[in-house]
Amino acid sequence: MQDEYRTVARAGVHETEVNRSRFLCALAPAATEREAQDFLASVRKEHADATHNCWAYVIGADAAVQKASDDGEPGGTAGVPMLQMLLRRDMRYVVAVVTRYYGGVKLGAGGLIRAYGGAVGEAIDSLGVLTRRRFRLATVTVDHQRAGKVHNDLLATGRQVRDVRYGEGVAIEIGLPDAEVDAFRAWLADATAGTAGFALGDEAYGDV
Q1: In whole angstroms, what separates CA 156 from the centre of its chain?
Q2: DSSP type of residue 143
Q3: pLDDT at residue 107, rounded to an integer
């Protein structure tokens, strides 16, 4: 697994104009290929009267899924430059749709490549980027008497508390970088006089 990846901070639209053609780049996070396709469908529906709705998306922290479409523009002048911009910016789990309203001036192949790639780059700059880092899920189990203090200590030391479940004991789910697991285990034993349980779970990604 990749140690970290970047994705767009939020969904949004950024508009540019090139030689009287309007280029609206809609960007959104997409956890799956289906989410990317659903977003594309919604943009196409909203801009059904546009000259083109070109698109590209990258799914997977390792960019395992990469797809793009020129949607009627000359081959290689729209979808590919959009995809290349996403990859150049190390963007993952993201979908970009550039809607073009033709303004009457032909841009030529080079102009189109710059316009579509540039629209994506400007949209990324406008909407911002999140870095998500790989971590290991872990569950700390303590008795009810110690739970409040342990929970507060976790928050005070900047730990990411993801869930708290109450039963016979209290199970607190946290995220830990792999490199910190041993040190955390030692801290927990010291903080609870060896009474806390500790179990490692699956790997996941979270915001840095």
Answers
A1: 27
A2: -
A3: 92
Give this prediction's pTM. Answer: 0.73
Chain centroid offset of residue 68 CA: 18
* Three-state secondary structure call for residue 119: helix
Beta strands across the sheet bearing 12-18: 12-18, 21-29, 94-101, 52-59, 65-69
pLDDT tens digits for 33-87?
999 999 999 999 999 999 999 999 999 988 999 999 999 999 999 999 999 999 9
User: Could you tell me which of 84, 107, 90 has the C-alpha nearest to residue 20?
Assistant: 107
Whole-angstrom Cα distance, residue 81 to residue 63?
16
Sorted by sequence, the CB contacts under 8 Å of residue 148 that are 6+ apart come out as none
- Give which of 4, 12, 47, 46 is closest to 29, Cα–Cα: 12
**Pick from 51, 47, 57, 119: which is nearest to 83 by CA?**
57
What values do phi and psi take at 102, rounded to 5?
A: -65, 135
| Dist CA 23 CA 20 (whole Å) | 10
The helix/strand/coil state of 39 is helix
Name residues whose C-beta falls within 8 Å of residue 115's C-beta, 6 or more positions apart in sequence: 16, 18, 21, 23, 107
